[in-house]
Amino acid sequence: MRARTAQTPEEDVTRARQDRLLGILSRDGEWATAATLADALGVTPRSIRSYVTAVNARVRSGTAIESGPLGYRAGADASAALRAGGGSDAGTTRDRLHTVVRSLLNAPEGIDVFETAERLHVSPATVDSDLARVRSLLGGTELTLERSASQARLRGTEMAQRRLLSRLAHDEMDAGSFDLAALRRTLGVGSVGARAFGPFKTDMVAELGALGYFVNEFGIGDVVMHIAIAADRVERGRGLERSVADETASQREIGEIIDRLALRHLGVQLGAGDRQHLATLVLTRVVAPGASAPSQDAHARLEPEVADAVRDVVTLAASEFLVDIAHEDFILRLALHVQNLLHRSREQAWSRNPLTRSLKSTYPMIFEVAVFIASGLQERLGIPLLDDEIAYIAMHVGGRLERSRRADQLLTATIVCPGYYELHELLRSSVDRSLGQAIEVVGVETRVDPDWGAIDTDLVLTTIDPPAPSDRIVRIQPFLTDSDIERVQSAASRIRRGRRLARLRTELERYFDPRAFVRGLDATHGEEAVIRRLGGLLVDDGVIDQDYVERTIQREALSSTAFTDALAVPHAMAMTATRTAIAIGLADPSIPWGEARVQVVAMVAFSETDREAFQTVFEQFVEVFSERDSVQRIVRRGTDFAGFLDELVAVIDG
After folding, report:
1. Residues near 202 by Cβ (< 8 Å), separated by ≥ 6?
2. Taking a C-beta distance cutoff of 8 angstroms, is the pair 135, 145 a contact?
3. N-to-C CA span, the chain
4. Domain 85-154's class?
5. DSSP notation for 113-130
6. Angle between helix 546-558 and helix 364-381 axes, rounded to 10 deg
7. Are 511 and 504 in contact (CB under 8 A)?
8. Residue 451 binned pLDDT confidence (cut-offs 50, 70, 90)
9. Which residues of 347-367 are buried (b: 16+ CB within 10 A; e: fewer)?
10. Which of 214, 283, 503, 646 sits most deeply, having the most CB atoms within 10 A of its CB?
11. 584 Cβ partners below 8 Å, 6+ apart?
12. CATH classification number, 295-405, choose in 1.10.1510.10, 1.10.3720.10, 3.40.50.720, 1.10.1790.10
């Protein structure tokens, strides 16, 4: 046998960094320098240049990453490059590992190590290493790997084996999005054809809608993945046994739809066990009662324990964060979601959420409320919640807050339009129609010489030139144009941002302390050690006690506080500090934090008296550090506390 050289773990790490580089550029869509990207990945600028060359080599006829005077940005073929190279079964350690797992799952009697090595063109020692990795994948799956001489065999239930396939498929998919090509790589090229699943999904959504259900598109891809796994296993004679639990009318109805569509599109006849299992997945992941469903029907479906737990935790969160979420309709919708989540947790059938990362970085305050709710539900109901599941709770919270705070975001405006027939009335009507969600017109001046100094609204929209320019005065045409609308929206956004950051600057100057500043963080012993070091400075200053530090570490374990690619904000959920203070740590180069890398760690200790400031500081602080160029400026020039504060204020002031 002639063994082919296997890809080493080090080469896998390099490939993963190349993928992450491509992911960062694709997500941001902007130019980024080699130095900035090197900080984000924890490598040198020279490595970034070699990664760019390697990534572009994946799509020889196109460009995955563009190069220019401003650095690098994602090219037209970025998506193709992310998927390139995944089809080879033995090309990378991950591909080969998946092949070995598939072989184990498809061979109840086990596999022979030497035969497998020959088939994959690697050495038996390499397959032994892969089997060791398989063991590391089995945690929590109720599967065991048995080894006898050259034979290796998986033992466990069919459901446990499907969970392992699901885990592999999720590993193949980027950011939780449903990818049929990745799914087929996991199941093998001989699996049910990927082309069938587009029509399958379309028909299933239509039939569920006809039954009066709202369909969660974020969850349906995950369910289609499970249907694909079920179809593949049934074709191999590995169907599920029927559950001993009684089948509900809803399960039976949805199971019949899935069975009919599986036969039509996939050519697979599902058994009773698979129909019931997949119907349960649909009911707990994909659908919710339609708008026509009576409220009493929804209440009747709720388990009292779930309803009580959600009500108590939401009421506590509303009080703790001063947010307007303790409403009956919100509690009912969230309780229905949590009840489905409880059923999924019993099956270890977690839902992926492709919006997790963006929700966390764009709406950190909403995500923090969701973490608080998730922590309370974990304590009351025993649900271990992952970031993706917390993100679904954040979507519920964000929807409620959007309803309650939309009016608070309106800016007031005065229209200056000298009277001529009904011209000013037409203009006001156009402004209300086109800009009503951003501004509220509270006055109209029809004089050609208005008292400009007496106009005190947030914005002034004028058809005549003002005596002096101002950031809040926007020149518009008597008949509103698209360009006028864009200028007004831009001015409104600028004013809102300026006010937010002005409040932030005022707050931060109160909370920073030169004695709680560290440059050159050491992440050798992980996030906990960094939290203890920064927390120790606040303990020494009498701001918090050691218990606060421990609770900060516990909060970090629930969900990483790396809210952007550069910033982590560790904190405890209870506001028990004697006063609000922030300990700052800078890292150059970046350090690992959760699944990200950061350059700034801001450990925040809030006091009970600063509840209202929590939202301002938390959300706007994250906003400042969401811009990579600003982070680089602050980290590079902030060689001491005074320099850090000067640069931070300069960035805030723009």
Report:
1. none
2. yes
3. 66
4. mainly alpha
5. HHHHHHHHTS-HHHHHHH
6. 90
7. no
8. very high
9. eebbbbbbbbbebbbbbbbbb
10. 283
11. 512, 516, 517, 518, 534, 600, 601, 602, 641, 644
12. 1.10.1790.10
**Residue 220 and residue 215: Cα distance in Å, rounded?**
8
Q: Which amino acid is at 307?
A: A
CB neighbours (10 Å) of residue 425? 13
Q: What are phi and psi of 573, to 5 degrees?
A: -80, -30
List the beta strands (DSSP E) in 489-555: 512-519
Question: What CA–CA distances, in Å, run from 341 to 295, 368, 373, 629?
Answer: 20, 19, 13, 40
Q: Is the pLDDT of residue 4 over 50?
A: no
| Over residues 373-382, mean pLDDT | 92
Instruction: Using the structure block, give the residue that is written with the tokens 């063994």.
Output: 3
Domains in the chain: boundaries:
25-82, 85-154, 194-287, 295-405, 408-480, 502-653
Amino acid letter for position 17: R
d(CA 41, CA 21): 7
Q: Whole-angstrom Cα distance, residue 276 to residue 280?
A: 6
Q: State if pTM tops 0.85.
A: no
Length of the chain as a residue count? 654
Q: Which amino acid is at 386?
A: L
Burial class (CB in 10 A: 0-12, 13-18, 19+), 80: middle
Distances (CA, A) of 635 to 28, 570, 587, 589, 630: 20, 18, 8, 9, 9
Q: How many CB atoms lie within 10 A of CB 76?
A: 11
Q: Using the CB atoms, write b or e for 173-207: b if 16+ within 10 Å.
A: beebebbbebbbbbbeeebbeeebbeebbeebbeb
Architecture of domain 502-653 in CATH? 3-Layer(aba) Sandwich (3.40)
Cis ω before 589 (30° cut-off from 0): yes
pLDDT class of 403 with cuts at 50, 70, 90: low
Q: For domain 194-287, which CATH number applies: 1.10.1200, 1.10.1790, 3.90.930, 1.10.3110?
A: 1.10.1790
Residue type, 174: D
Mind spelling out the 3-state secondary structure of 415-452?
A: EECCCCCCHHHHHHHHHHHHHCCCEEEEEEECCCCCCH
pLDDT at 501 over 50: yes
Q: Which residue is it, tokens 């072989």? A: 103
Please write the tens of the pLDDT for every residue from 524-571.
Answer: 888 999 999 999 999 999 999 999 999 999 999 999 999 888 899 999
Do the domains spanning 194-287 and 295-405 agree at the CATH topology level?
yes
